[in-house]
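Marked as duplicate of an earlier ticket. Keeping the data here for the record.
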Amino acid sequence: MNSLLCLSFAVLAVVVRADLPVHCLRHQLIGEWEFTLAPPSPKRTSCGHQKPDNQDNQPPLSFVTAGGGSTKRVTLSDPNTASSDGDTGTWTMIYDEGFEVALSDQVFFAFSKFDFVQDPTKGKTNISHCDATEVGWYHDKARTQWGCYVGKKVGGGSDSTAVAAAAPGTRKRSKPTLDLNLDSWTTNQQIDPSYDDDDYSKQFMSETDAKNEAVAAPADSASQDVTAPAAPAQDSAAQDFHIQGVSDASLASLHKWMSTTSVLDAPDADAYKPAGDFNQPLNQEWHENVVQGLNLLQLGWHAEAYSRYNGMTGKQMLKSAGIQRKIMKNARATMAPAFLGLTSSHRTKSAALAHVAEPESLDWRNKDGENFLDDVITQGDCGSCYGISTVRMLSARNRVRSGNPSEPAFSINFPLYCAEYNQGCDGGYGFLQTKWSEDVGLVPEMCAPYTQSGTCSMQGQCNLGAKRYRAANHHYVGGFYGGGEHVQIKQELVSGGPMVMSFEPKEDFMYYKGGVYKSGPNQIHQEWEQVDHAVLLIGYGSDNGSKYWQLQNSWGNDWGENGYFRMARGIDESGCESIAVAADVVEEDSNPTLDDFVSQMQSS
């Protein structure tokens, strides 16, 4: 449902809309499936999808079923085991939009099925069908046989079929804003009848999900390794000192806002009263007041009022951030811990990894005196953070693999605008970018330099050179979506090189200038974590006892610490340690799939 919504910093920022209007959870996919496979071919096709994919133009199921073929029964078990006729493999969700199955000699991937319907009162709405898929792709492990398929869960059932919810551009909802006078610092709700929160975040909830999210955690939660968050502490941080001209009450209110709710973490819109104008341009003084308040909290990092925000409205600020949580963090403690129950049997891997010798710190900008990274880039209006971080990871890992820091970079534009597995500037996932780069391949940056808008095309006649490169072994750290943790991430970072890290920042992250960023505890994992931004993880270290990850952002080198930032390590800060993605790079003498794809591009 909610693709990676990349935070963008254009002055006239546009929202990165989620890619596909579908929302399915793990328990809805578990069970027996029947896959209908079209006959395979030596050549890979787009299986009727556009380049990049488009939610309004999904191929009909007849694309697969009309040509005959075969069927295959596959059973998906919790958390990540797949089986078929005695053949055992693995499977993983891809956020809440689809799933990949890897058996001994076949790999399957498809998005979950969705429909648009016209409701007489709501207008255009969508329905998620979690017991079926859109047209997807399959291939053998050797990448010599390719085909298209569709999946249908055996028996179906109400637990697998979602209920209609408003589609983008139809659902109205009020949004929280702030009165930033330091002596009246309160979280309020600006009711703006023209504001459409689906402009930048689609809320597609199944009936089952809505019920599950209202269920409190079982009393026997201890047996599931569930740690309930501690009760909110008193606002002592704001009471330990006095600031001239700022009342203790306002400091306490500010501290409470930053610690428990934040602009976008308010528990319910109905709990707040209208205040201010959400469409009013915010001047530099307004931003400086925000920064003053953040710095007073002594959070361990320094905030700055960037001039790029001057003149933007609160509405534009929120859109440029792309932050819209479907499940508020302060409501997670009351959710049924369906995902957290995996910890006892699957997170014990970290105990073994903890004994692996690792350096005290690591930075791939200066590994044994060599820099394996590309320069910081400015993504602009395009929601391309997932593509930038993925390709930058693959470029760096190719240099690590070869031992040559001078290896040229791979093209970001090639998978960004050509991959049928993502939606270009409208969002996507690092996992699917690595998968497509493994299925098809990589091309040099000079063939398609980065642009903030574009199509699937090459710059002139691209010379791929004598060798071919592609991703390999794409995976979520931990083995499946949501299965990772900090020790595994650290080990992967040391042994393989930089990787993609996705996280869910609060609005204060936009003002980050330096230090170790920490927005507050996020200890409860769940089956679906809303992730809004992807960056390149390049190292780790410690600063006066504060452990951190070192990351490269895509907002230009005038943001943060020359385009980089540090984030608290080991506490799943902002959900960053839940779904890290990694992949290797292989060099080959030939890649017929890539050559055929490029040839079609250049001839069109």
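See parent ticket for discussion. Residues 516 and 545 are 11 Å apart (CA to CA).
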